[in-house]
Write a structure and sequence with these properties.
Blueprint lengths: L3 H4 L8 H12 L10 H11 L18 H11 L6 H12 L3 H4 L3 H4 L3 H14 L3 H15 L9 H14 L4 H9 L10 H12 L5 H7 L7 H12 L2 H13 L4 H11 L5 H13 L3 H14 L5 H10 L8 H12 L6 H24 L34
Helix pairs in contact: 2-20, 3-4, 4-5, 8-10, 9-10, 10-12, 11-12, 12-14, 13-14, 13-15, 14-16, 15-16, 15-17, 16-18, 17-18, 18-19, 18-20, 19-20, 20-21
């Protein structure tokens, strides 16, 4: 298995496939929380690649900032060499940083109204008492009833949950009672979804059975949120429980797909063992693809032959690019495969085509639209012959 110290330098790697995989290793496993050495590597990558705008900087939003990294971010945001999309991502990184580090730059930041609005919400939440915080959370859930997810202020809701988790001011028994009340045949709104997230923030192992059950829920949000919460708890108990549920739910491919997403993000030997066992038995191509990707995420050297065979035999290319996952894994772990150079050329050609497509879209000038004039068959022909259209140019229509 790969270790964080082994993966860390590859955040600044010149190959975007490798850099993205290294970022995801930390971001999706919550391994960034106490490591202030990650953000300097992210900023180094941004400074190295000013011609192209990395599309995966969102993975670094919550990486820990320092006074030095905040200063670098502010310099990059004001630089004409940095593209507008990259500047947006950099600003979002500021939003999740320690608020005290932003104080010297408030005059500059006040010009960015959407940012300041979100920042004020964070400040308001941090200034709430425990009772006020819980009441605000309950009110948020009440106000969310009947709304589509894209209508919610998810930044506000997520920030409430994170602060509740940090303070541990909601009784564990209350969280478990809410999770236990789940009824798939009833309208449970967003309460179960956000309480699942809170269980993850609190790292409640007592919530593991409920969260495992939610992985198979027929809902657009709950299975993914439950998977995230299980990864957040991230213990051997999670791996054991998800493995047992996985083996019992042989017919529920929906459950198995979300369950497969958990293992690679929990960087434990038990996760690697589970992935190796389950992949060797999995018959569903999409789920097998996800399990193989998990072995890449965790950096399993034992898994390379299994992954390689799946790539050669054919995997679910519509779900993810397993070649990219294996390529990044081999580069970071120093495992040479003869096909790596060929894949690297393929990836570069694909990136060039994408860039060319974007340029074409940018410079493409729509042709002027010509209104079509309907001509009756008995109208004079437009060619000027004096004949009726049906007897002239319209005779062949």
């Amino acid at each position: 298995m790969l270790t964080p110290e082994k993966v860390k330098p590859y955040i600044a790697h010149n190959d975007d496939v490798v850099s993205r995989a290294a970022l995801a290793y930390f971001a999706k496993s919550n391994l960034y929380e106490n490591d202030s050495m990650l953000m300097p590597l992210v900023l180094k990558k941004v400074q190295q690649d000013t011609e192209n705008e990395p599309l995966f900087l969102h993975l670094a939003y919550r990486f820990r900032q320092s006074a030095e990294s905040i200063q670098q971010v502010m310099e990059l945001v004001s630089s004409p060499r940095i593209g507008i999309n990259t500047k947006f991502h950099l600003t979002q990184m500021l939003l999740y940083s320690d608020l005290s580090l932003l104080e010297p730059y408030m005059n500059e930041l006040e010009q960015q109204q959407p940012f300041m609005s979100s920042l004020q919400k964070r400040k308001d939440i941090l200034n709430m008492t425990d009772d006020q915080l819980f009441q605000a959370f309950e009110q948020y859930l009440k106000d969310s009833n009947g709304k589509y997810y894209n209508e919610l202020d998810t930044f506000y809701g997520n920030t409430l949950v994170e602060e509740l988790g940090r303070r541990s001011c909601v009784e564990e028994d209350h969280i478990l009672r809410v999770l236990k009340s789940f009824n798939p045949d009833a309208d449970y709104g967003y309460e179960i979804i956000y309480y699942s997230q809170l269980a993850g923030e609190r790292r409640l192992e007592t919530a593991i059975p409920f969260l495992c059950g939610f992985l198979g829920a027929e809902d657009d949000l709950l299975p993914g949120k439950a998977a995230d919460a299980l990864v957040r708890i991230g213990t051997d108990a999670v791996v054991t429980a998800v493995t047992e549920h996985y083996l019992r739910n042989g017919e529920n491919e929906y459950f198995r797909l979300f369950a497969a997403d958990v293992f690679g993000k929990i960087k434990l030997p038990s996760s690697e063992a589970a992935l190796l066992e389950l992949l060797s038995k999995e018959k569903n191509l999409t789920t097998a693809t996800k399990l193989a990707d998990g072995l890449c995420e965790i950096g399993s050297l034992q898994g390379i032959p299994l992954i390689r065979r799946l790539v050669e035999a054919g995997y679910d290319q519509g779900y993810l690019n397993l070649k990219e996952s294996l390529y990044a894994h081999c580069i970071i772990s120093g495992q040479p495969l003869p096909e790596l150079e060929v894949w690297k050329e393929q990836f570069e050609q694909e990136r060039q085509l994408q860039r060319l497509k974007k340029l074409n879209e940018f410079f493409l000038i729509p042709a002027p639209q010509v209104r079509s004039v309907k001509i009756g068959r008995n109208d004079p022909c437009t060619c000027g012959s004096g004949k009726k259209y049906k007897k002239c140019c319209g005779s062949n229509t």
